[in-house]
Amino acid sequence: MEPLKLSPAFKDYIWGGTRLRDELHKRCDLERIAESWELSCHPDGLSTICSTSPSEKGMDLKEYLEQDWLGRVGQGAADMSTFPVLIKLIDASEDLSVQVHPDDRYAHEHENGENGKVECWYIVDCEEGAALAYGFNRELTQEEFRAHIADGTLLDYVRLVPVHKGDVFFLEPGTIHAIGAGILLAEIQQNSNITYRVYDYERVGADGKPRELHIDKAIDVTKTWPAPPRMKLSPTQMNGCEISQIADCPYFTSWEIHVTEQADFPANGGESYTHLLVTEGEAAIVYEGGVVMPVKRGESVFLPADFGAYSIRSSDATLLMTRTLPKK
Question: Is pTM beyond 0.85 here?
């Protein structure tokens, strides 16, 4: 058994840029790459296996997991009907629309059984002065929210937050938000592709028509009060690395890991898969008594739940680790 390198699905939304190709060396024929779906079993964009094993190379991740759901996904997600997580890299060359996501209850009722969406943003890099929209700057009533959408003053009430490399934001369903221009981030989210646009700068899509807004649904689900502050990380020293938890919810638990020597990770007893995304530097995954798999910035690796002990070796690399842990 070997770690599985993943090849992402790509999206060329109108606000995307070229950093995923130019800096993270993503291979794609699209003129712009707005998103790469690094870990995805969603039908709108499946990641595929690009490791060396002939039996698995080219297989999409969903098919691979369904062959041995418990052994590969693990106990934490064994009772879930779909794989719980979708992980993206996002390059915002322009501002994204101001938008909001529903929770499971609303999505199941109004979106043909689709999941809601909780998500975590990790700022991989950003231009000086870059900012994102995150909640409101004061509490609004639903009537005020609708009125500010209608008269074009909504942006006066959305809180803009300057960002820096390594910042983390956790977004509960119902949080109004928008990624700002000049931000490259990793998004760890519930497995869903439901977004309600509230404001889109009067832009038009590829068909020349204004992109669809979802005002009534957004008003139904939005929490019209300020969001909590950005997360403050509490690093813990471990052998060969510094580790900080950045997210913990029923669908995923994630950590930032900064490796400076060799960090050893034991077998997890089948409790969860492990996904590793390199956000800075280069590293090597060492397993099965010394077999080495090199990984570099932007690469994505999946370890099934029944994978054994392994190490991450580097003089200076940062990775995001994500698992779905059993309920306590």
Answer: yes
Task: Return the domain boundaries, the chain.
Answer: 4-221, 236-323
Q: Where are the alpha helices (DSSP H) in 189-229?
A: 215-221
Nearest alpha-carbon partner for 192 in 28, 45, 324, 325: 45
Provide the 10 A C-beta neighbour count for residue 209.
8
307: phi then psi, degrees, rounded to nearest 5? -70, 150
203 has a pLDDT exceeding 90:
no
Confidence band (pLDDT; 50, 70, 90) for 146? very high
**Residue 203 a catalytic site member:** no
Q: For 236-323, CATH number?
A: 2.60.120.10
The answer to whether domain 4-221 and domain 236-323 are alike in fold is yes
CA dihedral 311, 315, 316, 319 (to 10 degrees): -10
d(CA 311, CA 267): 11
Strands 177-178 and 131-136: antiparallel
Q: For 294, phi and psi rounded to 5 degrees?
A: -70, 145
- As a whole number of angstroms, the distance between CA 315 and CA 253 comes to 25
Place of tokens 């943003």: 121
CA 294 centroid distance within chain: 23
Count of CA atoms in the C-beta half-sphere (13 A) of 162:
3
Strands 253-259 and 282-287: unpaired
- CA separation for the pair 125, 278 (Å, rounded): 13
Instruction: Tell me the two tokens of residue 305.
Output: 């739940």
- Distant-in-sequence, close-in-space partners of 237: CB < 8 Å, separation ≥ 6: none
Q: What is the pLDDT of residue 202?
A: 84
Q: Does domain 4-221 have CATH number 2.60.120.10?
A: yes
For 173-196, the pLDDT digits (tens) are 999 999 999 999 999 999 999 999
Residue 54 has pLDDT above 70, yes or no: no
Per annotation, catalytic residue among 19, 197, 297, 323:
197
